[in-house]
Design a protein that fits this description.
This protein is of the alpha/beta class. The protein folds into 2 domains: 6-139 and 362-410, NAD(P)-binding Rossmann-like Domain (Rossmann fold, 3-Layer(aba) Sandwich), CATH 3.40.50.720; 143-358 and 413-430. It is 44% helix and 19% strand. It is built from 18 helices and 14 strands. The strands form 2 sheets. A 7-stranded parallel β-sheet has the order 3-2-1-4-5-6-13, with helices on both faces. The protein is globular and about 65 Å long.
Length: 435
């Protein structure tokens, strides 16, 4: 292994892989790590190096993820693997296997819940023995959902000077961006996953080590009241909600299980329930958007229509234009409500906002996953959050925590704001003697 930590971008010549490579090559900490690029084609790797003017400092690896020997040789030589080779159900398992066996850290951008469930079952225990930290869903799927809950819980804890159990957490998404051929391919691959595995992954808490409270009821029209502005956000079903919720529930379960040994450790509490939606202009547009998604998903279930739609949608390697990537954005507004208690007659609530500059699924994802990888590569193990020090299949919140938030803010592309918004509770508590 090189003297400096090394970060391998696997699938570097793909659409998202190129964006990640470009971001890392010009990173503010580029002198602190070695950048390695992996792909099946040497010619395409050379072309990428030339187009980005990377010079000779970057390491190049010709590697086919279907070759265990090639994977072993490359993975064992680096510190962290950023895997962009999807669909992960088809190509991801051998990469995780190699990382776990060699004790190498791993991040990816998957949103494939059935595959994450398989990886947890296959590798979580082994990873705790080798020290490998495996963090799926470290991109747009599902960092915003996961980190915003982590921050809301932290705000409650700091305000109260003790852990505070959460009742509900609801996020409202506003975003602008495009879609790539890789995303389309992943969606189509999902239809080939055995029905039983899809069904098992669709259960609430399917990724969690513990079973939590029943979820919030499903709605055709979602509403989220903002106590500080007296506004109500209205919206529709968000198509990534099942994936994001499953990942957040894993964070909940990992935190909750750990805190059973010591309730002063961060945790969300046994009553925790999470939901999210896409903001629309009003209830009518919310209903129309939901119906449109139902019709669209239904069309993909019909073979002739699926064949026709594939002809119209982006192909593998294609994605949003540079202008779409630059002008895209993300804003997530979350209201988290604490469990009621005799000491708090009014609900204690936190408003947390995350914003991101760039197309959420691509340009911004390159930032999210790169900073996740660098959090692992550039941080001594004893400075990582407690769960990460033991290794395992974790989540962005449980593996990276505060240091990840700090890196994202330092990137200049992501902002966070988290504050108590129930002033009727805050003011009396601040006036309490000795507090």
């Amino acid at each position: 292994m090189s003297a400096k930590p090394s970060v391998l971008v696997l699938g570097a010549t793909g659409f998202t892989g190129k964006l990640i490579t470009k971001y890392l090559a010009s990173h503010r900490d580029s002198a602190a790590f070695t950048l390695a690029l992996g792909a099946r084609s040497k010619a395409r790797l050379d072309e990428l190096v030339a187009n980005l003017d990377l010079g000779t400092a970057v390491q190049l690896h010709v590697v086919d993820v279907t070759s265990p020997a090639q994977l072993d040789e490359v993975v064992a030589s680096v510190t962290v693997v950023i895997n962009t080779v999807g669909p992960f159900w088809t190509w991801g398992t051998p990469v995780v296997n190699a990382c776990v066996r060699h004790g190498i850290h791993y991040v990816d951008l998957t949103g494939e819940t059935p595959w994450i469930k398989r990886v947890i079952n296959m590798f979580h225990y082994s990873a705790t023995k080798t020290g490998a930290i495996i963090v799926p869903s470290s991109g747009f799927d599902s960092v915003p959902a996961d980190i915003i809950n982590f921050l809301a819980s932290k705000t409650l804890r700091e305000f109260s000077n003790e852990p505070v159990d959460i009742d509900t957490s609801v996020s409202a998404y506003v975003l602008k961006g495009g879609v790539s051929g890789g995303t389309i391919s992943t969606g189509l691959t999902g239809l080939t996953i055995p029905k039983n595995e899809r069904r098992m992954a669709s259960f609430e808490y399917s990724l969690s080590p513990a079973l939590g409270a029943p979820p919030l009821p499903r709605r055709l029209v979602h509403r989220l009241f903002l106590p500080d502005t007296r506004r109500t956000l209205i919206g529709a079903f968000y198509f990534m909600s099942p994936t994001n919720r499953a990942l957040v529930q894993r964070s909940w379960g990992l935190f909750e299980t750990e805190s059973q040994k010591d309730r002063t450790l961060p945790h969300y509490g046994p009553a925790f329930k999470y939901d999210e939606f896409m903001v629309t202009g009003g209830p009518v547009s919310a209903v129309l958007l939901t119906l449109g998604m139902v019709i669209g998903f239904g069309a993909f279930m019909i073979s002739p229509l699926r064949w026709f739609l594939q002809k119209l949608l982006p192909k593998s390697g294609e994605g949003p234009s540079p202008s779409v990537q630059k002008n895209g954005f993300l804003k997530v507004t979350n209201i988290t409500t604490a469990v009621a208690s005799p000491a708090r007659p009014a609900p204690l609530q936190v408003k947390t906002i995350m914003t991101g500059q760039g197309d959420p699924g691509y340009s911004l994802t390159a930032v999210l996953i790169s900073e996740a990888a660098l959090s692992l590569a550039l941080t001594p193990t004893d400075k990582l959050p407690p769960l990460a020090r033991r290794g395992g299949v974790l989540t962005p919140a449980t593996a990276l925590g505060d240091l990840y938030v700090e890196r994202l803010v330092a990137s200049g592309r992501v902002t966070f704001e988290s504050k108590i918004v129930s002033t009727e509770v805050m003011l009396p508590r601040l006036a309490t003697p000795g507090r």
